[in-house]
Amino acid sequence: MGLPRWNFSDSTERKIRIVILTIVGLIMAYEKFYGVSSTQYPAMYLCVFALIATIMTNSVQRRYFTFVMEYAQAFRIVAILMTCAFFIIWLLTTYERFTLPAAPSHLIYNL
Question: Which residues, 6+ apart, have CB-to-CB distance to 71 below 8 Å?
């Protein structure tokens, strides 16, 4: 039976890859200038897993993982799921950062 295969054409996979990597690049640029540690960590993990998910195309799997296609496809599926999970975590932490009120000044330790 095996794992599900996505038989997208090379041009479709290229378009998907460009869109995903552009979104990840914009998130990383945003985090570079406006991020805090609570949002930068999910963004970094998002970047790592997005790179793996976009590099493992069908043509790469056929060329380099001929005898272990099932394992390469499982690796790609896990990378896609982790990318989605860290994107959701990044959205939630960014949302909380903007909606939570600032800490009162008397609770902040000043030197």
Answer: 65
